[in-house]
Q: What sequence folds into this?
C-alpha cells in the first residue's frame, strides 16, 4: 500500500506527534476531497473510558497504549482497505477510519466489528493484560458531502454510544444496520466455504536486502463472498471467531499453502502465521507434523510467524510447543517486533530465527535519524542473538538503502511486490 496516509497539502498536514497520523484538519480535507470525487464511508472509533488507563497507569503508559492502538488500526486499514483507505487521530482516544472503496452497509459494519476485535486484543501493561472496549460510529457519506458535517454526525453518534451502555456500534444516520445475512448465516457461509475450499490464498513475496533475490513468501487468506465481496484477513478471522472456527480456518490456510508451496522451486521458503487459538486447540506440533508430511513440503523450508499477542495466554506452554516445532526443522519468527512489549526474556526463551520489524518502524527510517538509530540498535541486538532481521512494509528505494546499510537481511513490501497468487509467484521465481 502507498505510504499511509495519502499526501495532503503542507498547510493541513497536522500530524499527531504521538502516532504520526494526520489530525482533524487533515481528516476534514480528505473527506472533502473524497466527497468531490464521489463518496466516502467512515467510522469514528472511540476507546471507551480511556482516561481510566491514564489514571491507573500514568500518562506515559497511556501514550504507549495509544500508539499500539494506532498501529493496529493502520494495519487493519492497510489490509482491508488498501490504497483507498485513510486513518487519522481525532484527539484523545478517538480515531477516524475512512474509505472510498464501494461497500454495502453490511460489509462496512462487519469491517467495523473486525477492527473492534483487533483493538480489543489484550495489551501487556505493567504486569496486567489491558483490554479496551471500543465504541464505533458508522456513516456512508453522500456524493458532494463536505467533511465537517460528516465528522459532526459521527461525533454525535459516538457521544451517544459513550454515554449509553451495552451497544458498541451505531450508525450515524439514525438507523440500525439490518443485515441481509445474520451473523449465524455468515458463520454457516464460512463453514461451507472451508468445505468447498473457497478460501483463496495470496502470497507476499520476500526478498534479500543485499541483492533483491526472491527467497520465499508469506501466505495470506482472502474470501470472495458472493454478497459481501472480497473479505480480507481481519474480517475473515472476525467471522471465524464468532463461531469459534479460527483454528479450523488456520488449519485450512496452512494445508492449502503447504500444498501449493510443494510445487515451488527448492530454494523458496513458506511463512505461515500461527494464532493463539492454534496453540490452545489440540496438539499444534502434531498437527503441523501431519500437514507437512501430507504435503511433501520440507519442514526445513517452513517458517512459523507468531506475535507477542499469540503468547499472552500461556507463554511457557507456547514456548515448549515452539521448541518442539523447531526440533522438526521449522523456523520461528517473531512478527510485528517493535510494536509490543517484547523483552530479553521473550527473545531468550523462544527458539527464534528471525525478528520481523513492523512497518511502523520502517516507514521513516530514511528521514528520521531517531528511527534509523532504533533500527541500528535492533539489528545489533539481533546480530548478537544470531537472529535475522526481516523488514515489512518497504515502499521506496530510500528505505531499502537504509536497510542495506544497517544490515537487515530480508524485506517485503510494495517496493517490489504486493501480495500475488501462486501462479504469479511461480513466474517471479522463474524470472
A:
Amino acid at each position: 500500500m502507498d505510504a499511509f496516509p495519502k499526501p495532503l497539502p503542507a498547510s493541513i498536514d497536522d500530524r499527531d506527534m504521538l502516532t504520526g497520523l494526520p489530525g482533524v484538519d487533515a481528516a476534514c480535507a480528505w473527506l472533502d476531497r473524497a466527497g468531490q470525487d464521489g463518496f466516502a464511508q467512515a467510522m469514528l472509533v472511540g476507546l471507551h473510558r480511556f482516561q481510566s488507563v491514564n489514571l491507573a497507569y500514568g500518562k506515559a503508559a497511556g501514550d504507549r497504549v495509544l500508539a499500539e492502538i494506532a498501529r493496529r488500526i493502520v494495519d487493519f486499514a492497510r489490509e482491508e482497505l488498501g490504497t483507498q483507505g485513510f486513518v487519522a487521530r481525532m484527539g484523545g482516544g478517538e480515531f477516524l477510519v475512512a474509505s472510498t472503496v464501494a461497500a454495502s452497509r453490511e460489509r462496512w459494519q462487519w469491517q467495523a466489528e473486525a477492527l473492534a476485535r483487533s483493538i480489543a486484543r489484550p495489551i501487556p501493561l505493567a504486569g496486567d493484560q489491558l483490554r479496551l472496549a471500543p465504541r464505533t460510529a458508522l456513516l456512508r457519506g453522500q456524493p458532494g458531502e463536505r467533511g465537517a458535517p460528516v465528522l459532526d454526525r459521527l461525533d454525535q453518534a459516538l457521544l451517544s454510544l459513550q454515554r449509553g451502555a451495552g451497544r458498541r456500534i451505531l450508525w450515524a444516520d439514525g438507523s440500525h444496520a439490518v443485515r441481509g445475512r445474520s451473523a449465524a448465516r455468515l458463520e454457516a457461509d464460512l463453514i461451507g466455504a472451508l468445505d468447498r475450499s473457497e478460501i483463496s490464498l495470496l502470497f507476499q513475496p520476500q526478498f534479500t536486502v543485499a541483492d533483491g533475490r526472491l527467497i520465499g513468501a508469506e501466505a495470506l487468506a482472502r474470501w470472495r463472498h458472493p454478497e459481501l465481496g472480497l473479505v480480507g484477513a481481519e474480517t475473515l478471522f472476525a467471522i471465524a471467531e464468532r463461531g469459534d472456527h479460527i483454528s479450523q480456518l488456520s488449519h485450512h490456510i496452512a494445508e492449502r499453502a503447504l500444498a501449493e508451496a510443494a510445487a515451488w522451486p527448492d530454494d523458496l521458503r513458506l511463512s505461515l502465521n500461527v494464532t493463539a487459538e492454534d496453540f490452545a486447540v489440540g496438539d499444534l506440533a502434531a498437527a503441523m507434523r501431519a500437514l507437512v508430511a501430507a504435503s511433501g513440503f520440507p519442514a526445513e523450508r517452513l517458517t512459523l510467524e507468531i506475535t507477542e499477542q499469540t503468547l499472552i495466554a500461556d507463554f511457557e506452554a507456547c514456548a515448549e510447543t515452539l521448541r518442539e516445532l523447531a526440533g522438526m526443522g521449522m523456523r520461528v519468527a517473531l512478527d510485528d517486533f517493535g510494536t509490543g512489549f517484547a523483552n530479553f526474556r521473550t527473545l531468550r526463551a523462544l527458539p527464534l530465527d528471525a525478528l520481523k520489524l513492523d512497518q511502523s518502524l520502517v516507514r521513516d527510517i530514511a528521514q528520521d535519524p531517531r528511527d534509523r538509530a532504533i533500527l541500528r540498535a535492533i539489528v545489533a541486538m539481533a546480530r548478537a542473538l544470531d537472529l535475522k532481521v526481516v523488514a515489512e512494509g518497504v515502499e521506496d528505494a530510500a528505505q531499502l538503502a537504509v536497510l542495506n546499510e544497517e544490515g537487515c537481511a530480508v524485506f517485503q513490501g510494495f517496493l517490489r511486490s504486493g501480495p500475488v497468487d501462486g501462479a504469479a509467484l511461480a513466474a517471479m521465481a522463474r524470472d
